[in-house]
Design brief:
Blueprint: E1 2-3, H1 14-20, H2 22-25, H3 36-56, E2 63-66, H4 69-77, E3 85-89, H5 94-105, E4 109-113, H6 123-132, E5 136-138, H7 152-161, E6 165-169, H8 181-184, E7 188-192, E8 203-207, H9 222-225, H10 233-268, E9 275-276, E10 287-291, H11 297-306, E11 309-310, H12 326-330, H13 335-338, E12 342-345, H14 352-368
Helix pairs in contact: 1-10, 3-10, 4-5, 10-14
Length: 369
Protein backbone atom coordinates (compact mmCIF):
# COMPACT_ATOMS: atom_id res chain seq x y z
CA UNK A 1 0.00 0.00 0.00
CA UNK A 2 1.30 3.45 -0.95
CA UNK A 3 0.17 5.82 1.79
CA UNK A 4 -0.80 9.32 0.69
CA UNK A 5 -3.01 10.43 3.61
CA UNK A 6 -0.59 12.04 6.05
CA UNK A 7 -3.00 14.86 6.92
CA UNK A 8 -5.25 12.21 8.47
CA UNK A 9 -2.44 10.62 10.44
CA UNK A 10 1.23 9.77 10.08
CA UNK A 11 3.11 6.53 10.74
CA UNK A 12 5.02 6.68 13.99
CA UNK A 13 8.72 7.38 13.52
CA UNK A 14 10.91 4.48 14.70
CA UNK A 15 12.95 6.92 16.79
CA UNK A 16 9.77 8.05 18.52
CA UNK A 17 8.69 4.47 19.22
CA UNK A 18 12.11 3.62 20.65
CA UNK A 19 11.77 6.57 23.04
CA UNK A 20 8.30 5.47 24.13
CA UNK A 21 8.88 1.75 24.72
CA UNK A 22 10.63 2.01 28.11
CA UNK A 23 7.61 3.95 29.43
CA UNK A 24 5.24 1.23 28.28
CA UNK A 25 7.16 -1.63 29.87
CA UNK A 26 9.79 -0.62 32.44
CA UNK A 27 9.00 2.88 33.71
CA UNK A 28 5.29 2.52 34.35
CA UNK A 29 5.00 4.62 37.51
CA UNK A 30 2.32 7.29 37.95
CA UNK A 31 3.89 10.70 37.35
CA UNK A 32 2.02 12.11 40.37
CA UNK A 33 3.66 9.62 42.75
CA UNK A 34 6.52 10.78 44.97
CA UNK A 35 8.55 7.56 44.90
CA UNK A 36 11.38 7.05 42.41
CA UNK A 37 9.43 5.25 39.60
CA UNK A 38 6.95 8.11 39.58
CA UNK A 39 9.68 10.76 39.60
CA UNK A 40 11.35 9.13 36.59
CA UNK A 41 8.13 9.40 34.59
CA UNK A 42 7.56 12.98 35.78
CA UNK A 43 11.04 13.95 34.62
CA UNK A 44 10.40 12.42 31.18
CA UNK A 45 7.10 14.32 30.85
CA UNK A 46 8.89 17.53 31.83
CA UNK A 47 11.42 16.89 29.06
CA UNK A 48 8.60 16.31 26.56
CA UNK A 49 7.00 19.59 27.62
CA UNK A 50 10.28 21.37 26.94
CA UNK A 51 10.56 19.70 23.52
CA UNK A 52 7.04 20.67 22.43
CA UNK A 53 7.52 24.19 23.80
CA UNK A 54 10.77 24.58 21.85
CA UNK A 55 9.07 23.59 18.59
CA UNK A 56 6.63 26.52 18.83
CA UNK A 57 8.90 28.94 20.69
CA UNK A 58 7.25 29.20 24.12
CA UNK A 59 8.03 28.42 27.75
CA UNK A 60 7.26 24.87 28.97
CA UNK A 61 4.72 26.26 31.46
CA UNK A 62 2.61 27.41 28.49
CA UNK A 63 1.96 23.82 27.39
CA UNK A 64 -1.07 21.85 28.58
CA UNK A 65 -1.01 18.26 27.34
CA UNK A 66 -4.32 16.88 26.07
CA UNK A 67 -5.53 13.71 24.37
CA UNK A 68 -5.13 15.34 20.94
CA UNK A 69 -6.10 18.26 18.73
CA UNK A 70 -9.83 17.80 19.23
CA UNK A 71 -9.59 18.13 23.00
CA UNK A 72 -7.23 21.08 22.66
CA UNK A 73 -9.72 22.83 20.37
CA UNK A 74 -12.59 22.13 22.76
CA UNK A 75 -10.53 23.38 25.69
CA UNK A 76 -9.75 26.59 23.80
CA UNK A 77 -13.42 27.30 23.11
CA UNK A 78 -14.24 26.49 26.74
CA UNK A 79 -12.79 29.88 27.64
CA UNK A 80 -16.31 31.12 26.77
CA UNK A 81 -18.06 30.59 30.09
CA UNK A 82 -20.80 33.22 29.99
CA UNK A 83 -22.96 34.00 26.97
CA UNK A 84 -20.60 35.75 24.61
CA UNK A 85 -20.03 36.67 21.00
CA UNK A 86 -17.42 34.60 19.22
CA UNK A 87 -16.34 33.92 15.66
CA UNK A 88 -14.76 31.08 13.69
CA UNK A 89 -13.65 30.84 10.10
CA UNK A 90 -15.84 29.01 7.58
CA UNK A 91 -13.15 26.39 6.94
CA UNK A 92 -12.47 25.08 10.45
CA UNK A 93 -11.99 21.43 11.41
CA UNK A 94 -15.13 19.66 12.73
CA UNK A 95 -13.69 19.75 16.27
CA UNK A 96 -14.11 23.53 16.11
CA UNK A 97 -17.30 23.80 14.08
CA UNK A 98 -19.24 21.21 16.09
CA UNK A 99 -18.23 22.73 19.41
CA UNK A 100 -19.09 26.19 18.05
CA UNK A 101 -22.57 25.03 17.07
CA UNK A 102 -22.98 23.47 20.51
CA UNK A 103 -22.03 26.77 22.17
CA UNK A 104 -24.44 28.60 19.89
CA UNK A 105 -27.24 26.27 20.99
CA UNK A 106 -26.46 27.24 24.59
CA UNK A 107 -26.93 30.95 23.97
CA UNK A 108 -23.59 32.21 22.67
CA UNK A 109 -23.66 34.39 19.54
CA UNK A 110 -21.67 32.92 16.64
CA UNK A 111 -20.32 34.71 13.57
CA UNK A 112 -18.68 33.02 10.59
CA UNK A 113 -15.61 34.52 8.90
CA UNK A 114 -15.94 33.92 5.18
CA UNK A 115 -13.13 33.03 2.76
CA UNK A 116 -12.50 33.76 -0.90
CA UNK A 117 -12.43 31.28 -3.79
CA UNK A 118 -8.93 30.15 -2.77
CA UNK A 119 -9.99 29.49 0.82
CA UNK A 120 -8.16 32.57 2.08
CA UNK A 121 -9.52 34.97 4.69
CA UNK A 122 -9.34 38.52 3.34
CA UNK A 123 -9.07 41.87 5.11
CA UNK A 124 -12.72 42.73 4.51
CA UNK A 125 -13.77 39.64 6.46
CA UNK A 126 -11.55 40.63 9.37
CA UNK A 127 -12.89 44.19 9.32
CA UNK A 128 -16.41 42.80 9.49
CA UNK A 129 -15.72 40.46 12.40
CA UNK A 130 -13.98 43.26 14.35
CA UNK A 131 -17.22 45.27 14.15
CA UNK A 132 -18.97 42.24 15.68
CA UNK A 133 -16.73 42.63 18.78
CA UNK A 134 -16.26 38.92 19.54
CA UNK A 135 -14.73 37.78 22.81
CA UNK A 136 -12.93 34.96 21.02
CA UNK A 137 -11.93 34.34 17.39
CA UNK A 138 -10.72 30.96 16.10
CA UNK A 139 -8.89 30.80 12.76
CA UNK A 140 -7.01 27.69 11.70
CA UNK A 141 -3.42 28.20 10.58
CA UNK A 142 -3.42 25.65 7.75
CA UNK A 143 -6.43 23.87 6.31
CA UNK A 144 -6.50 20.09 6.56
CA UNK A 145 -8.21 19.67 3.16
CA UNK A 146 -6.79 22.28 0.79
CA UNK A 147 -3.56 22.94 2.68
CA UNK A 148 -4.13 26.71 2.50
CA UNK A 149 -2.05 28.67 5.02
CA UNK A 150 -3.69 31.80 6.40
CA UNK A 151 -1.88 35.11 6.88
CA UNK A 152 -2.63 34.81 10.55
CA UNK A 153 -0.13 37.21 12.06
CA UNK A 154 -1.46 39.90 9.74
CA UNK A 155 -4.85 39.72 11.45
CA UNK A 156 -4.11 38.79 15.05
CA UNK A 157 -2.73 42.23 15.88
CA UNK A 158 -5.94 43.89 14.72
CA UNK A 159 -8.11 41.39 16.59
CA UNK A 160 -6.09 41.75 19.79
CA UNK A 161 -6.21 45.55 19.62
CA UNK A 162 -9.99 45.27 19.52
CA UNK A 163 -10.13 43.06 22.62
CA UNK A 164 -10.57 39.59 21.10
CA UNK A 165 -8.86 36.43 22.34
CA UNK A 166 -7.40 34.69 19.28
CA UNK A 167 -7.09 30.92 18.96
CA UNK A 168 -5.57 28.97 16.12
CA UNK A 169 -5.80 25.29 15.27
CA UNK A 170 -2.20 24.71 14.15
CA UNK A 171 -2.48 20.93 13.98
CA UNK A 172 -1.89 20.65 10.23
CA UNK A 173 0.81 23.30 10.04
CA UNK A 174 2.98 21.85 12.78
CA UNK A 175 6.03 20.04 11.43
CA UNK A 176 5.42 21.20 7.84
CA UNK A 177 5.93 24.95 8.10
CA UNK A 178 7.48 27.14 10.82
CA UNK A 179 4.96 27.60 13.65
CA UNK A 180 6.00 30.25 16.16
CA UNK A 181 3.39 31.07 18.80
CA UNK A 182 4.60 34.59 19.58
CA UNK A 183 5.18 35.56 15.96
CA UNK A 184 1.64 34.50 15.08
CA UNK A 185 0.38 36.72 17.86
CA UNK A 186 -2.28 34.32 19.13
CA UNK A 187 -3.44 33.71 22.69
CA UNK A 188 -4.20 30.00 22.23
CA UNK A 189 -2.91 27.31 19.86
CA UNK A 190 -3.87 23.64 19.37
CA UNK A 191 -1.31 20.95 18.47
CA UNK A 192 -1.39 17.21 17.83
CA UNK A 193 1.23 14.49 18.04
CA UNK A 194 0.03 12.04 15.42
CA UNK A 195 0.33 14.56 12.58
CA UNK A 196 4.10 14.84 13.12
CA UNK A 197 5.04 11.12 13.22
CA UNK A 198 4.24 10.82 16.90
CA UNK A 199 1.68 8.60 18.64
CA UNK A 200 -2.07 9.08 18.68
CA UNK A 201 -3.62 10.08 21.98
CA UNK A 202 -1.49 13.12 22.71
CA UNK A 203 -1.84 16.79 21.85
CA UNK A 204 -1.44 20.15 23.51
CA UNK A 205 -3.02 23.53 24.03
CA UNK A 206 -0.45 26.33 24.05
CA UNK A 207 -1.64 29.35 26.00
CA UNK A 208 -0.65 32.87 26.83
CA UNK A 209 -0.56 33.33 30.58
CA UNK A 210 -2.96 36.27 30.38
CA UNK A 211 -5.79 33.97 29.27
CA UNK A 212 -7.93 32.20 31.85
CA UNK A 213 -8.46 28.60 30.80
CA UNK A 214 -11.54 26.84 32.15
CA UNK A 215 -10.87 23.12 32.60
CA UNK A 216 -13.11 20.66 30.79
CA UNK A 217 -11.96 17.78 33.03
CA UNK A 218 -11.91 18.12 36.83
CA UNK A 219 -10.14 15.77 39.17
CA UNK A 220 -6.62 15.30 40.46
CA UNK A 221 -5.19 18.63 39.39
CA UNK A 222 -2.75 17.42 36.75
CA UNK A 223 -1.41 19.77 34.04
CA UNK A 224 -1.37 22.86 36.25
CA UNK A 225 -4.95 22.03 37.29
CA UNK A 226 -6.06 22.68 33.72
CA UNK A 227 -6.49 19.08 32.53
CA UNK A 228 -7.17 16.48 35.19
CA UNK A 229 -6.43 12.80 34.68
CA UNK A 230 -3.39 10.55 34.94
CA UNK A 231 -1.04 11.52 32.13
CA UNK A 232 -0.71 9.27 29.09
CA UNK A 233 3.02 9.24 29.79
CA UNK A 234 4.28 7.16 26.88
CA UNK A 235 2.24 9.14 24.34
CA UNK A 236 3.34 12.47 25.81
CA UNK A 237 6.98 11.36 25.78
CA UNK A 238 6.56 10.22 22.17
CA UNK A 239 5.02 13.59 21.30
CA UNK A 240 8.05 15.29 22.80
CA UNK A 241 10.48 13.22 20.75
CA UNK A 242 8.43 13.80 17.58
CA UNK A 243 8.51 17.54 18.28
CA UNK A 244 12.28 17.46 18.75
CA UNK A 245 12.72 15.66 15.42
CA UNK A 246 10.27 17.99 13.66
CA UNK A 247 12.25 21.00 14.83
CA UNK A 248 15.58 19.53 13.74
CA UNK A 249 14.33 18.30 10.36
CA UNK A 250 11.73 20.94 9.44
CA UNK A 251 13.63 22.61 6.59
CA UNK A 252 14.69 19.30 5.08
CA UNK A 253 11.20 17.80 5.27
CA UNK A 254 9.48 20.88 3.86
CA UNK A 255 11.86 21.17 0.91
CA UNK A 256 11.51 17.48 0.06
CA UNK A 257 7.72 17.50 0.33
CA UNK A 258 7.46 20.58 -1.87
CA UNK A 259 9.56 18.83 -4.52
CA UNK A 260 7.19 15.85 -4.46
CA UNK A 261 4.14 18.13 -4.55
CA UNK A 262 5.41 19.86 -7.68
CA UNK A 263 5.85 16.50 -9.44
CA UNK A 264 2.36 15.49 -8.36
CA UNK A 265 0.75 18.71 -9.55
CA UNK A 266 2.53 18.66 -12.90
CA UNK A 267 1.19 15.17 -13.50
CA UNK A 268 -2.33 15.96 -12.31
CA UNK A 269 -2.65 18.97 -14.59
CA UNK A 270 -2.14 16.75 -17.64
CA UNK A 271 -5.54 15.15 -16.89
CA UNK A 272 -8.28 16.95 -18.88
CA UNK A 273 -10.80 18.83 -16.73
CA UNK A 274 -8.95 18.33 -13.44
CA UNK A 275 -8.89 21.29 -11.04
CA UNK A 276 -6.47 21.72 -8.17
CA UNK A 277 -8.33 23.57 -5.45
CA UNK A 278 -6.55 26.63 -4.03
CA UNK A 279 -3.84 26.07 -6.63
CA UNK A 280 -2.66 29.67 -6.47
CA UNK A 281 -2.88 30.04 -2.72
CA UNK A 282 -0.09 29.69 -0.16
CA UNK A 283 -0.34 26.03 0.83
CA UNK A 284 1.35 23.38 2.92
CA UNK A 285 4.20 21.74 1.00
CA UNK A 286 2.60 18.28 1.21
CA UNK A 287 -1.07 18.88 0.37
CA UNK A 288 -2.97 18.75 -2.94
CA UNK A 289 -6.76 18.59 -3.20
CA UNK A 290 -8.25 18.22 -6.67
CA UNK A 291 -11.57 17.61 -8.37
CA UNK A 292 -12.67 15.87 -11.56
CA UNK A 293 -15.90 16.58 -13.43
CA UNK A 294 -18.65 13.96 -13.17
CA UNK A 295 -16.67 11.92 -10.65
CA UNK A 296 -17.74 10.47 -7.31
CA UNK A 297 -14.84 11.23 -5.00
CA UNK A 298 -15.59 8.49 -2.48
CA UNK A 299 -15.95 5.91 -5.25
CA UNK A 300 -12.60 7.00 -6.71
CA UNK A 301 -11.00 6.70 -3.26
CA UNK A 302 -12.23 3.10 -3.08
CA UNK A 303 -10.96 2.30 -6.59
CA UNK A 304 -7.56 3.74 -5.73
CA UNK A 305 -7.56 1.68 -2.54
CA UNK A 306 -8.10 -1.45 -4.61
CA UNK A 307 -5.07 -0.45 -6.69
CA UNK A 308 -2.91 0.02 -3.60
CA UNK A 309 -3.16 3.76 -2.87
CA UNK A 310 -4.45 5.34 0.34
CA UNK A 311 -5.89 8.80 -0.31
CA UNK A 312 -8.94 10.58 1.08
CA UNK A 313 -11.93 12.55 -0.10
CA UNK A 314 -11.47 15.23 2.58
CA UNK A 315 -11.19 15.39 6.35
CA UNK A 316 -10.81 11.99 8.00
CA UNK A 317 -12.96 13.29 10.88
CA UNK A 318 -15.85 14.00 8.52
CA UNK A 319 -15.54 11.03 6.15
CA UNK A 320 -18.48 8.78 5.41
CA UNK A 321 -20.93 11.63 4.90
CA UNK A 322 -22.80 12.29 1.69
CA UNK A 323 -22.62 16.06 1.96
CA UNK A 324 -19.96 17.94 -0.01
CA UNK A 325 -16.93 19.30 1.82
CA UNK A 326 -17.88 22.28 3.99
CA UNK A 327 -14.48 23.78 3.19
CA UNK A 328 -15.03 23.66 -0.57
CA UNK A 329 -18.60 24.85 -0.13
CA UNK A 330 -17.31 27.87 1.79
CA UNK A 331 -14.98 28.55 -1.13
CA UNK A 332 -17.96 28.66 -3.51
CA UNK A 333 -17.21 25.37 -5.26
CA UNK A 334 -20.27 23.82 -6.91
CA UNK A 335 -21.63 21.11 -4.55
CA UNK A 336 -21.58 18.40 -7.21
CA UNK A 337 -18.02 19.23 -8.16
CA UNK A 338 -17.04 19.37 -4.47
CA UNK A 339 -18.20 15.76 -4.12
CA UNK A 340 -15.51 14.75 -6.60
CA UNK A 341 -12.72 16.04 -4.36
CA UNK A 342 -9.67 13.90 -3.64
CA UNK A 343 -6.96 14.88 -1.18
CA UNK A 344 -3.39 13.67 -1.47
CA UNK A 345 -1.21 14.50 1.53
CA UNK A 346 2.40 13.42 1.18
CA UNK A 347 4.81 12.29 3.87
CA UNK A 348 8.54 12.22 4.44
CA UNK A 349 8.87 8.56 3.44
CA UNK A 350 7.08 8.94 0.09
CA UNK A 351 9.10 8.91 -3.13
CA UNK A 352 8.90 10.46 -6.57
CA UNK A 353 8.45 6.98 -8.04
CA UNK A 354 5.33 6.50 -5.87
CA UNK A 355 3.93 9.85 -7.03
CA UNK A 356 4.45 8.97 -10.70
CA UNK A 357 2.89 5.55 -10.16
CA UNK A 358 -0.15 7.24 -8.61
CA UNK A 359 -0.56 9.66 -11.51
CA UNK A 360 -0.40 6.84 -14.04
CA UNK A 361 -2.96 4.79 -12.12
CA UNK A 362 -5.27 7.77 -11.71
CA UNK A 363 -5.16 8.41 -15.44
CA UNK A 364 -6.17 4.79 -16.11
CA UNK A 365 -9.08 4.99 -13.70
CA UNK A 366 -10.29 8.30 -15.10
CA UNK A 367 -10.15 7.00 -18.66
CA UNK A 368 -12.09 3.90 -17.62
CA UNK A 369 -14.78 6.19 -16.18
Amino acid sequence: MIYFDHNATTPIDDRVLDTMLPYLKTFYGNASSLYRPGRIVRSAIDTAREQVAALVGVQPAQIVFTSGGTEANNLALATLVSKSRFAISAIEHPSITEQALHLKSRGHDLAIINVDANGVIIQEAIDKVIQYKPKLVSIMLANNETGVVQKLSQYTRQLRENGSIVHTDAVQGLGKIPVAFNELGVHLMSLSSHKIYGPKGSGALVFEKSVKINPVFLGGGQEQELRAGTENAAAIIGFGKAAELAQAELAQRSEYLLTLRKVLEEGLLTIPGLTIFSHHGDRLPNTVQFGLPETDGEMLVMKLDQKGFAVSSGSACASGGKEPSSVLTAMGVDPNYAKSAIRVSLGKANTEAEVIKFINQLKLLVCQG
